[in-house]
Every structure is written in structure tokens, then in C-alpha cells.
């Protein structure tokens, strides 16, 4: 088996790679965001999940505004090396809508996505809006 490095990762044409954050204890998928190489390097260095905001065109540390940091316990890549999987210890909700996971909507029998689970925090409390 050949060892791989960051240079072997397959970033897309925008220099980004999808990053899935997963709870280190339960395996629950918490969120999906994007990383560029600098975000990944900072994540490795600081052990705090750092992402690239496509809308703001800048790096952001998860929790820098809300206080809901992701402490990185492990980093993996898939067989194609085009996705990052972060194993994290999540402080508070991962979702900007106040839910534990961003994947809180589930398709019901009527073909509609409805919220499942409890909202842990009011987004206005997290972001002071």
C-alpha cells in the first residue's frame, strides 16, 4: 500500500474539496462544508475545523461566531481522495439553524422534508441577530 500526502488530494477546479464533519463518538453526520488547501492545513495545525466560505470567499473557523467549535480528532480521505472526512468533537449545535446536525430534515411519506429532532439553540442567540 502506498502512503499518500496532501499533494495527492484531488481538489476541484476551484481548488476546493468537500469536507464532511462527523461526530467522533456517535458517527452522526453533522455537516458538509468546503476546504481549500489552506483551510485543511490550518485544521491540521490548530485541530479546529477551518473551512472555505464560497459565499464570503474567505476562510472561517467553525464556531468563531457562534462559539460552537469543532475540535478535530481525526482526518480521513476516501479512496478517490476527493472528499475529506473530519472526526470531530462538536461544541453545541453544528447547524446554523440551531440543530445538532445540518441534516435535520427528513423526507416523509407525503414527499416533503420535515424537521426531525430538537432545536438546541435559537440562531439569534448564536449569532446575535
Tell me what you see in this structure.
- With 129 residues, the protein is mainly beta.
- The protein has a domain of 83 residues: Ubiquitin-like (UB roll) (Roll), CATH 3.10.20.810.
- Helices cover 12% and strands 33% of the residues.
- It contains 2 helices and 8 strands.
- The model has no long low-confidence stretch (mean pLDDT 95).
Q: Could you name the CATH homologous superfamily of the domain at 10-92?
A: Phosphoribosyl-AMP cyclohydrolase
CATH class of the domain at 10-92, named Alpha Beta
Range of strand content: 25-35%
Shape: globular
Helix content: 10-25%
Number of strands: 8
- Strands of the largest sheet, in order across it? 2-1-6-5
Distance between the termini: 51 Å
Structural class: mainly beta
Rg result: 16 Å
CATH topology of the domain at 10-92: Ubiquitin-like (UB roll)
Brief descriptors of the model:
mainly beta, single chain, 4-stranded mixed β-sheet, 2 helices, 129 residues, two-stranded antiparallel sheet, Ubiquitin-like (UB roll), globular
What topology does this entry show?
Elements: E1 17-23, E2 29-35, H1 37-46, E3 50-53, E4 58-61, E5 70-77, E6 84-90, E7 105-107, E8 113-115, H2 123-127
Parallel strand pairs: 1-6
Antiparallel strand pairs: 1-2, 3-4, 5-6, 7-8
Summary?
With 129 residues, this protein is mainly β. It contains 2 helices and 8 strands; from the N terminus they run ββαββββββα. A 4-stranded mixed beta sheet has the order 2-1-6-5, with helices on one face.
Amino acid at each position: 500500500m502506498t502512503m499518500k500526502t496532501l499533494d495527492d488530494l484531488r481538489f476541484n477546479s476551484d481548488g476546493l474539496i468537500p469536507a464532511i464533519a462527523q461526530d467522533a463518538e456517535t458517527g452522526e453526520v453533522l455537516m458538509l462544508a468546503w476546504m481549500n488547501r489552506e483551510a485543511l492545513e490550518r485544521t491540521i495545525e490548530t485541530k479546529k475545523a477551518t473551512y472555505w466560505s464560497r459565499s464570503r470567499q474567505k476562510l472561517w473557523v467553525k464556531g468563531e461566531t457562534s462559539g460552537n467549535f469543532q475540535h478535530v480528532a481525526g482526518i480521513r480521505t476516501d479512496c478517490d481522495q476527493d472528499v475529506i472526512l473530519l472526526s470531530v468533537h462538536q461544541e453545541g449545535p453544528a447547524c446554523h439553524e440551531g440543530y445538532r446536525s445540518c441534516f435535520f430534515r427528513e423526507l416523509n411519506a407525503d414527499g416533503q422534508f420535515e424537521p426531525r429532532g430538537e432545536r438546541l439553540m435559537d440562531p439569534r442567540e448564536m449569532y446575535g441577530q
